[in-house]
């Protein structure tokens, strides 16, 4: 299945660069960190992507998280087609909005009420405003290496895209916007406790990824999430879990279910839309009722709750609930990571692996990655060579060392063997 040539991709990407900044609509897709130009995709099918030259790739990106069911799932596509026949948008209440909200409230432990938006970024900006409005406080604690969308106040040491490009915070964000954002080290329990001792009564919210996916996969150390829960309860601060990546991914009820720790509010995205643009935030009714029109914290959206997107989300979540693929997906993923680990060890390459459910990262770093400070030491040049070698062998990986790989239910044992075989060759070559 090796990739012969990408002539059309080159041509068409060059064309795109004339009219789209960098040729991409999101910098995470650019190949700046790995060299060369992105592959231009024609279509997806199950666990595969096909580029416009007709090459096939095993997809370990899944549109950066949404496609836990793979592409064109037979349970999802008919629901989208059915919804399309009724019209694309009404800007008025529909049945499907309530259906998806009920599903989310049913599946995600902390959610009593939920508001739909169009992206994870929108969910991020909304929860920050909500937490501030609810508590009457301004300060937000975030953790280095966590990404919560390109929200001004949260674009400080923000992981993945920003990390990859070496711009931890962005020009164009006025200092005033981030003046109330405190950035702490992920997994540093003592630093968190000290910060609350000093500033507890000023802190509106703590926001975090319960399993980080945006500095590569980084798991919470034992006691870390528990401590966040504890200090937030003690000081009346809102605990926000950003489950845009982990929601319906690391367990049906997300990381809050997997680790059995309930936040006050959570953000959702990616899987919730099954590939359509959906974000959401939800949690305790008492807090959610502070948003307009019940309360006075304003948040709105012309296309929010879009019926086509809702249909895609409903079909995806219903399929996940009925088929409960999580245990099998996790053991498949483990077989894959064990194979990658063995291949890296055989090639004599310093590495560590991190995984949670169906997300994982092979770090070119000898040290266990528990924080941004450690992830910053990854050998990104070696990753670039690994990425290119895998791409040439028909394996589509995230184009950055600081992104999570995602597996889907469609991945077969043969696919996994193929990925491991390709990695064995590539890792030998780049050793
Ligand atoms: C992807 C992501 C976001 C942003 O979502 P968009 O839909 O890209 O705006 C926010 N938080 C986390 C944890 C993410 O992985």
From TrEMBL:
One of its GO terms (cellular component) is cytoplasm. It is found in: Cytoplasm. Coiled coil: none annotated. It catalyses: (S)-4-amino-5-oxopentanoate = 5-aminolevulinate. Its main location: cytoplasm. One of its GO terms (molecular function) is pyridoxal phosphate binding. Pathway: Porphyrin-containing compound metabolism; protoporphyrin-IX biosynthesis; 5-aminolevulinate from L-glutamyl-tRNA(Glu): step 2/2. Its EC number is 5.4.3.8. Its cofactor is pyridoxal 5'-phosphate. InterPro entries: 4pyrrol_synth_GluAld_NH2Trfase (IPR004639), Aminotrans_3 (IPR005814), PyrdxlP-dep_Trfase (IPR015424), PyrdxlP-dep_Trfase_major (IPR015421), PyrdxlP-dep_Trfase_small (IPR015422). One of its GO terms (biological process) is protoporphyrinogen IX biosynthetic process. Pfam families: Aminotran_3. Keywords: Cytoplasm, Isomerase, Porphyrin biosynthesis, Pyridoxal phosphate. The modification N6-(pyridoxal phosphate)lysine is found at residue 270. Belongs to the class-III pyridoxal-phosphate-dependent aminotransferase family. HemL subfamily. Homodimer. This is Glutamate-1-semialdehyde 2,1-aminomutase. The lineage of its organism: Bacteria, Pseudomonadati, Planctomycetota, Planctomycetia, Planctomycetales.
């Amino acid at each position: 299945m090796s990739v012969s040539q990408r002539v059309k991709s080159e041509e068409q990407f060059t064309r795109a660069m004339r009219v789209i900044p960098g040729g991409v609509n999101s910098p995470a897709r650019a190949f700046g960190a790995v060299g060369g130009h992105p592959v231009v995709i024609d279509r997806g099918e199950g666990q595969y992507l096909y580029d416009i030259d007709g090459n096939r790739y095993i997809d370990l990106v899944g549109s950066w998280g949404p496609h836990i069911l793979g592409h064109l799932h037979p349970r999802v596509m008919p629901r989208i087609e059915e919804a399309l026949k009724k019209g694309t948008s009404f800007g008025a209440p529909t049945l499907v909005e309530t259906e998806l909200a009920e599903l989310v409230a049913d599946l995600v432990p902390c959610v009593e009420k939920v508001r739909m938006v169009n992206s994870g970024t929108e969910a991020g900006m909304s929860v920050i405003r909500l937490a501030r409005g609810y508590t009457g406080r301004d300060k937000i604690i975030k953790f280095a290496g966590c990404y919560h969308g390109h929200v001004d106040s949260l674009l400080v040491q923000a992981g993945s895209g920003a990390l990859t490009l070496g711009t931890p915070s962005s020009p164009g964000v006025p200092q005033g916007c981030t003046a109330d954002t405190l950035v702490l080290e992920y997994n540093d329990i003592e630093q968190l406790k000290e910060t609350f001792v000093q500033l507890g009564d000023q802190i509106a919210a703590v926001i975090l990824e319960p399993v980080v996916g945006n500095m590569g996969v980084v798991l919470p150390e034992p006691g870390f999430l528990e401590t966040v829960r504890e200090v937030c309860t003690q000081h009346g601060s809102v605990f926000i879990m950003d489950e845009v990546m982990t929601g319906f991914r690391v367990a049906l009820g997300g990381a809050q279910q997997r680790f059995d720790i309930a936040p006050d509010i959570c953000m959702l995205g990616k899987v919730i839309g099954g590939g359509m643009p959906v974000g959401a935030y939800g949690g305790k009714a008492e807090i959610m009722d502070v948003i307009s029109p019940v309360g006075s914290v304003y948040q709105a959206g012309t296309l929010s709750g879009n019926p086509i997107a809702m249909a895609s989300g409903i079909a995806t979540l219903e399929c996940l609930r009925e088929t409960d693929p999580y245990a099998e997906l996790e053991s498949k993923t483990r077989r894959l990571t064990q194979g990658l680990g063995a291949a890296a060890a055989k090639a004599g390459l310093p590495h560590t692996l991190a995984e949670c459910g169906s997300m994982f990262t092979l770090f070119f770093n000898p040290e266990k990655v528990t924080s941004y400070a450690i992830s910053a030491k990854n050998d990104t040049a070696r990753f670039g060579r690994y990425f290119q070698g895998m791409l040439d062998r028909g394996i589509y990986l995230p184009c950055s060392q600081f992104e999570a790989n995602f597996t889907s239910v469609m991945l077969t044992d043969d696919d996994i063997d193929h990925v491991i075989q390709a990695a064995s060759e590539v890792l030998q070559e780049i050793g």
